[in-house]
Amino acid sequence: MLNLEGRTAVVFGLANKRSIAWAIAQKLHAAGVNLAISYQNERLRADAEDLVAELPGAQLFQCDVSADADIDRVFAELKERYGKLHVLVHSIGFAPADEMKNDFVLTSREGFRIAHDVSVYSLIALSRGAAPLMTEGGSIITLTYYGAEKVFPRYNVMGVAKAALEATVRYLAADLGRKNIRVNAISAGPIKTLAARGIGNLSEMLKAHADRAPLGRNVEQAEVGGAALYLASDLSTAVTGEVHYVDAGYNVMGF
After folding, report:
1. Domains of the chain by start residue, with CATH
2. pTM, whole model, 2 decimals?
3. Is residue 121 annotated as a catalytic residue, yes or no?
4. Per the residue annotation, which of 155, 230, 245, 250 is the catalytic one?
5. Can 145 be counted among the known catalytic residues?
6. What confidence tens digit (pLDDT) does each residue in 90-107 have?
């Protein structure tokens, strides 16, 4: 196990025990990282408190990433408590349910805006808040999906948002590299998370993935957590602007 004692990470996007954010938090905590974890709203508070209780020393913060005032408040609190940051994890994605059920051509203007605001712009806003605290350099990690590159039925506007997210990773990497801050995305295979439940054909996606992936199976949250630990560590100090696939090899297959 990597030893990252003395480093501080903030993880955004905790929903429940199936969250990729939770798997990443567990890996970072096991490596000795001082951990701050953010959840969205009061509805998720109880589950978040129960989970964080399993990680001694971890602190919990509420933050709605669509509200600039919330983001400003959280980073002020993080600065006061920790002084500096080394790792930011952005595990956030959302589109209104109707946008995932209807044909893509019926995507509404408001649904498009919400998907990009919550899923993409939030990475820019959080990176802007974190960068001044990364005085020793740092690693920013977000979560994407292969639907950014290829069409998956009913993934719809989230595929377009993930494509924008991956472009955002590259532009942020170029902007922040001079501060020794790396920005990367993990493209995970389909996983049964709270967010994924909004995809109408998730079970079909999981079966197709396992059938076609070179490893012949689906991906587990802990495996994504392991990749995030690598990107948070000094093993990846020359890696930035990249999309790192954790999908059992599915993306390399043409047929």
Report:
1. 8-247 (3.40.50.720)
2. 0.95
3. no
4. 155
5. yes
6. 999 999 999 999 999 999
